[in-house]
Structures are given as C-alpha cells and as structure tokens.
Specification:
6 helices, alpha+beta, globular, single chain, 9-stranded mixed beta sheet, 9 strands, 211 residues
Length: 211
C-alpha cells in the first residue's frame, strides 16, 4: 500500500468517527487503522489472518480481559512498545497470528497482547454474519469506551465504538463483489485507489458539522 493512499484513507476515517471519540489522538488512530489495513491486505505467511485492537482506556480493557498466554509484549520498556515505531509494527504483524486482542493506550503504547476480552454481549445488536471476534470488539467498546478495530479473516476491517459498528474498510475493491456490508441505514462511501471505506451517513454529517 502506498503511503499517500494510506494517509488519505485514515484521515477520512478519523474524521468520520471523531465526533464520537474526540478523546482519541488523531495520529494514533491513523496509525492503528493503517496497520489494520496492512494486516488485512498482506496476511501472514501466505494466508489471511484476523486480529483485534482496542484503543484507549487500557486499564479498563485489561480489567475486562485475561491473558491467553504469557504476554510477549508486557516485559518490554514503554519506548519499545509504541505503535508508531516501525519495528513494533512488524512485531505486531507477527503476533497477530496468535489468538487474542492487542490492548493500546490513547498514546499508542501497546500495553498487552493475546488478551481474551471477557465482556457481556447482552444487548449488543449485531447483524448476522459477523463472528465472535466482532462481537467481542463491539462488547468491549461499549463496556469500556475504547475503540475496537477488528481485522476479519475475510480481509475486511471494521471499527466499533460504544457497542456499534461505525465503519467498514475493504482494502481491495474486488472484495466488494464478495462481501455484504453490515452497516445499517444510509451509507457514505469513499474510494481511494483500491481501498473502499464505508461509514454511516450520520457520522459523516457530524464530522462535517464539527469542522
């Protein structure tokens, strides 16, 4: 993915969810979305992989989760766990092959990896066709106020906030012919090179009004 295209994609995505998550630094959210798109597109070792990131309110997320294995991230110094570091991004791509979620602070520090999100899915209104990883993302975003960014094994990136699906990103336009969108109501679409971004119309309207 070319850097200019990625920058355009994540800027638009941030603008559309910013009205509901104004506490989140733009640079950090941009970086996590960009990394999620890269994982969705590239996979690992010739296969598609799925993973989940939570961004913000890390203490609350950690209280509502548990380790699946000994954490490969936690013992490293903070400066070695910043998501904006290219070496960390490479490490995250390798660890994304393991089960569990990555937990990030608002400043982009990776606090933990391989976490099982242990929250109730009661009252989460999830459309049919999305699996347990998406349900976990929606639930943790409602429980903790964190943003959840989910990479599916079908190479679609979905963003949840306050228990609701906020956006869907297809990293390759040909995927449009294979996937049905799960966003509800009127949609807004941005297509930049070979990336398609779908958000709810009301989120776009709120973003434009806040400028």
């Amino acid at each position: 993915m070319e850097s200019a295209s990625t920058a355009d994609v994540v800027i638009k995505m941030f603008e559309h969810i910013c009205p509901k998550a104004s506490w989140c630094p733009r640079k950090v959210l941009d970086t996590v979305i960009e990394l999620a798109i890269e994982i969705a597109r590239e996979g690992r070792e010739g296969r598609r992989i799925g993973t989940l990131f939570t961004l913000g309110f890390a203490d609350s997320v950690l209280r509502n989760s548990r380790a699946l294995i000994l954490d490969p991230i936690a013992a490293h110094p903070r400066e070695a766990r910043l998501i904006t570091d290219l070496n960390v991004r490479g490490t995250i791509k390798e660890l994304a092959q393991l089960d569990g979620a990555f937990v990030l602070d608002e400043d982009g520090t990776v606090q933990a990896a391989c976490r099982y999100l242990d929250t109730s899915s009661k009252d989460i209104n999830m459309t049919f066709g999305l699996g347990s990883r998406h349900l976990a993302g929606a639930s943790i975003s409602r429980e903790t106020n964190a943003i959840a960014i989910v990479v599916s094994e079908s190479a679609v990136v979905r963003i949840f906030y306050d228990g609701c699906l906020q956006a869907e990103i297809l990293p390759e336009l040909w995927l449009l012919s294979r996937h049905s969108l799960h966003l509800r109501g009127p949609l807004h679409q941005d297509s930049l090179q070979d990336v398609a971004i779908f958000t709810a119309e009301d989120a776009v309207t709120k973003a434009e009004q806040s400028r």
